[in-house]
Amino acid sequence: PTAVLQCAAAAACMGIGALVVSSEPALAASGAAAAPPPLEIFGKSSAELFPVSNVSIVTWLLLIFAPGWKYLKPAALVAPVINALFYAAAVGYLLTHPAPDAPPVDFGSLDGIVTAFRNPDGVFAGWLHYCVFDPLVGLGEVLDSQQNKVPHALVVPCLILTLLFGPVGFLSYLTL
After folding, report:
1. b/e string for 114-141 if b means 16 or more Cβ within 10 A?
2. What is the rounded CA–CA span in Å between residue 59 and residue 106?
3. Which of 60, 85, 51 is nearest to 137 (CA)?
4. Contact, 77 vs 139, CB < 8 A?
5. Is the pTM of this model over 0.90?
6. Rounded to 5 degrees, what are φ and ψ at 160?
7. What pLDDT, in 10s, does the model give residues 75-120?
8. Which of 25, 69, 84, 110 has the smallest number of Cβ neighbours within 10 A?
9. Which of 54, 80, 68, 58 is nearest to 153 (CA)?
């Protein structure tokens, strides 16, 4: 959609995703490589950027209260696009600046996933992942319900469950 592409282009022009990092890890007094500098976007840390992820609430409000609005689809995509840009920046940073003592991420075990999320920047990236995909699932529920003539009053509880518990809301929608 044109509106989403325009939003993404505007965000790119504003520098979303531009990382402020040093090119080489600092050396500790012992001569060993120190931890890489923390993620910074617009000079802000993950903790300072965390409130930006709340822009996804706008999507949820549109899905619940304005499902018939003719601009619903492009408007509902704005927040996921913003969060996806921050996510891409965070993941790009994490992949290019691993801690020197960090073991490789093992997606094949729970311990490997727990290790990956010990880094606050990794937790921030994980949260952004939810803030992108859960609203998209909600948008899919609304669009599908409109196509299949499911009353919106039945969809709203599913949307709330999707907002709070992701897969539970999705499964509840599938039962309609």
Report:
1. ebbeebebbbbbbbbeebbebbbbbbeb
2. 33
3. 60
4. yes
5. no
6. -65, -40
7. 999 999 999 999 999 999 998 988 787 777 788 999 888 888 888 9
8. 110
9. 68
